[in-house]
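Posting this for the archive.
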Amino acid sequence: MLKALLTDIDGTITDPARRIHTGAIETIRSLVGQGVVVVLASGNTSCFMESLCKMIGTQGSFIAENGGVFRVGYTGPLRITGDQSACRKALETVQVYYRTRGKELDLFSPTYRFADLAFARTVPVGEVKEIVKDYPVQVIDTGYAIHLQSPGVNKGTTLVTLAETMGLNPADFLAIGDSVNDIQMLKAAGIGITVANAHPDTKAAAEYVAEKEYGDGFVEGMKKYSSYFRAR
């Protein structure tokens, strides 16, 4: 039996315009009401994730910055699993490269990030990988932003640590996502599923692929596995 849900945000519980799917909110609140732990996971910042937890109505646990940061509950300490120092140096090199070519990177909330650094997908991700190939960082393309992150840090590795902190096992979780940065968490969880709009590699890693896209696919997946959950 499953005790917890770990869900990605963008592309998974949203619609194509990145608006939160109202049916997904209702589904999550129903699970919370049944005593199921719901954890949100994203490449976004911790302050964004805290606000989202409150507005959706979860118990406050989240994974942010693609696994670089996590927190258990609303009152738990913010735990940082990534090392931003190398990311800063790599980012500086990327910025210099593009500035000499007359282009400025559009950074995403660098002041509020503690583990990774992210910028808009206005430059080729393959080119970024080549620029930072000599730095101890990984380049993650979420489909919404390009992230520089510590090697070996992802949503899956942080799921393992988060589960232990919560007194759970990764096998107690159902994980659902859509992008390549969700693959590790789908594999680490007891059950990994995805929505119809997911990347082909993510679909290949999933136990179940919903017939519907985006938030509709999330609701479909939760209905299929609703009997697998029990209150913690």
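The first strand starts at residue 4 and ends at 8. Helices lie at 22-33, 46-56, 84-99, 125-131, 155-165, 183-188, 200-205, 214-224.
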